[in-house]
């Protein structure tokens, strides 16, 4: 069986000789050369989206993947089964594009939840979503086996929401947050990206909004993954800028919780003037990268494994599937792709090049 690898330096021969031995029963763990083990799988269910966030895609959208090139439900379910029951994956996050646009989402969640990890329990299942339309589906998705959601929200000002997403859907997102809490998709986490000159003024209002609703806000540093003109290292709003802005209204102290492989550094916050307190996460993906603790592997909607958000090489599992490859062929290709994961994302390297795929097609 030929293993099609899009990175010419990775060959099937290297795979067979370099990789750690398979476990008893022929199962494998997704090790890389630096000792990290991937336990968290991010699956992009579609590259399409119903919003047009300025930092993610252009107003006219992108050239979407052709339907026949994307994984069908059977193919996704087969790859999920292999990942969870044979490759040591313990947590799955469905993302996109917008995962709610996949009609079979509940069914995919249901069949995923029926699988058993190497700890002999079902996988934890999370979803990252823009929340549009989620209010009507939160309860049924929870029933299907979804454990929790991250909802993206960069401002609570309706006009700025429209400006940032190019759509007027703020009320859908707020309803989605409330419905998710009610459905027990907890802890509900809110992802906010702050951009210079666009929504810096939203840092404190977003924090107040989330603390009032008892959902956990996480600020994410903007990464060079969207339209090229949307990111500039010299003006990027860093974790330090966010902490400074929060400090004007809150007293902050680092939370005692251990971070492990979680990307967010947690802060305990107490409002200076109001009876509001809780935790806020800050994900300093660019300024203080957490690559050394990364335990992620990613699967794109067209079935390519990516060992990092920022990699420029991919391994197509879809091609192996459609070539009649066995589970072992797929496992070897997946393990090989992960083995070659780099130690870090390299954004600060002067030779850094943005990946060819935009964030929405990678699965954030
Ligand atoms: N459509 C869903 C959503 O927006 O939640 C899921 C896909 S989206 C690509 C996943 C996450 O990536 C969102 O929280 C979004 O804010 C974040 N994101 C998109 N582009 C980004 C960028 N250039 N830098 C940092 N985060 C980004
Ligand atoms: Fe769509 Fe999410 Fe990208 Fe916004 S961040 S355009 S919601 S994929």
Automatic annotation (TrEMBL):
Q: Give the multimer and partner information.
A: Monomer and homodimer.
Which HAMAP family does the record cross-reference, listed alphabetically?
Answer: MoaA_B (MF_01225_B)
Q: Which amino acid positions bind [4Fe-4S] cluster 2, per UniProt?
A: 291, 294, 308
Radical SAM core domain: residues covered = 33-263
* Cofactor(s) needed: [4Fe-4S] cluster
| SUPFAM superfamilies for the chain | Radical SAM enzymes
- Principal EC category: lyase
**Binding residues annotated for S-adenosyl-L-methionine, in chain numbering:** 55, 97, 152, 223
Report the InterPro entries cross-referenced here. Aldolase_TIM (IPR013785), Elp3/MiaA/NifB-like_rSAM (IPR006638), MoaA (IPR013483), MoaA-like (IPR040064), MoaA_NifB_PqqE_Fe-S-bd_CS (IPR000385), MoaA_twitch (IPR010505), MoCo_biosynth_MoaA/MoaC (IPR050105), rSAM (IPR007197)
Which reactions is this enzyme annotated as catalysing?
GTP + AH2 + S-adenosyl-L-methionine = (8S)-3',8-cyclo-7,8-dihydroguanosine 5'-triphosphate + 5'-deoxyadenosine + L-methionine + A + H(+)
Which Enzyme Commission numbers does its entry carry? 4.1.99.22
Keyword tags? 4Fe-4S, GTP-binding, Iron, Iron-sulfur, Lyase, Metal-binding, Molybdenum cofactor biosynthesis, Nucleotide-binding, S-adenosyl-L-methionine
UniProt superkingdom:
Bacteria
SMART domains assigned: Elp3 (SM00729)
Output the GO biological process annotations, alphabetical, semicolon-separated. Answer: Mo-molybdopterin cofactor biosynthetic process
- Cofactor notes: Binds 2 [4Fe-4S] clusters. Binds 1 [4Fe-4S] cluster coordinated with 3 cysteines and an exchangeable S-adenosyl-L-methionine and 1 [4Fe-4S] cluster coordinated with 3 cysteines and the GTP-derived substrate.
GO terms (molecular function) for this protein are: 4 iron, 4 sulfur cluster binding; cyclic pyranopterin monophosphate synthase activity; GTP 3',8'-cyclase activity; GTP binding; metal ion binding; S-adenosyl-L-methionine binding
The UniProt entry, under PROSITE patterns, shows: MOAA_NIFB_PQQE (PS01305), RADICAL_SAM (PS51918)
Protein name per the record: GTP 3',8-cyclase
Q: Hey, which family's this protein in?
A: Belongs to the radical SAM superfamily. MoaA family.
Copy the pathway line from the protein's UniProt record: Cofactor biosynthesis; molybdopterin biosynthesis
Q: Which residues bind GTP?
A: 42, 93, 128, 189, 296-298
